[in-house]
Amino acid sequence: MKKGTPIILLLFISISLFSQQENSNHKNDLGVNINAILNKIVFKKVNDEITNPFPDQLFILTYRHFISPKLALRFGFGYDQFLRNDSTFSTFSGVLIENDKFDFYSFHFGIHKNVFDAKKVKLTLGWDWIFRLELQERTRNDFFFGGGINLEEVTYIDTNKESSVGFGIPIGIQYFFNDRIFISTELSLEVSQTFSKKKSEYNGNTSNDFRDDTDTINLKFRPPLAMFLNYRF
After folding, report:
1. What is the DSSP-derived secondary structure letter of residue 2?
2. Is the pTM of this model over 0.90?
3. 209: Cα within 13 Å, side-chain hemisphere
4. Structural contact between residues 194 and 165, judged by C-beta atoms closer than 8 angstroms
5. How far is residue 77's CA from residue 74's CA, in Å, rounded to a whole number?
6. What is the phi-psi region of residue 148: left when phi exceeds 0, alpha when psi lies from -120 to 50, beta otherwise?
7. Cα(31)–Cα(85) distance, rounded to whole angstroms?
8. Backbone angles phi, psi at 8, to 5 degrees
9. Percentage of the chain with pLDDT > 70?
C-alpha cells in the first residue's frame, strides 16, 4: 500500500490539473534526446556488460500534438544497439571469444499538460502507457586443446528476451530560448510488469521454444538524465 500511495496522489493531481486552458499558436513540437546521441555517436560510450547502455535515457525522439491550448497527446520512441567483442588466450587451455549483441526498443503514448507557464519556463505533468523490449544475445566460442594437440571448439549461445508494459507519471520542465526552440527534461514514476524468456544452445543443440522466467512487477523512479532539444511548429 505504501508503494501505491504516491501513484494515487499523482494521479489525482494530474486529473485536477488537466482542466486548465492556455492560448498558443503552435500545435506541435518535436524533441531529440541530445544526451543519448552525444554519448552514442560523439563520446562512443560502451559498457563492459551486455546491458542497456542508457537505462535512464529511454527515448530518442518525442512528439506532442496539442488538442487544446494546454493539453497534448504525446508519443515517444527509443532504440539502441550495443555490440561488444572480447577474447582471451591461454597457452595451455586455448582461446575464448565472446560476442554480445543488445537491441533495445521503447515506446510511450499518453497525455501531456502544461501546469505552469512563464515567458521562459514551463512545468509539465503527464500520463504515459509504456512498452519496452530488450533482446540480448551472447555467443561464446571456446577453442581448447583436447586429445593431445587437437584443437576443439565448443559454442554456447544464450538468448534473452525481456518485455515490459506499464504506465508512468512524468513531471517535466521546459526552458524556451525563443517562441519555437526550447530544451526540456523530466523525471517519472513508473509501474510496469516484466516478462522474461530465455533460450540456450550448446553446439547447435537447443530446445524448440524459449522458456519463461518468473514475471516481476516493478516500481521505479527515473531521474531527469535525458536532455531534449525541441522545436515547436
Report:
1. T
2. no
3. 4
4. no
5. 11
6. left
7. 33
8. -65, -40
9. 68
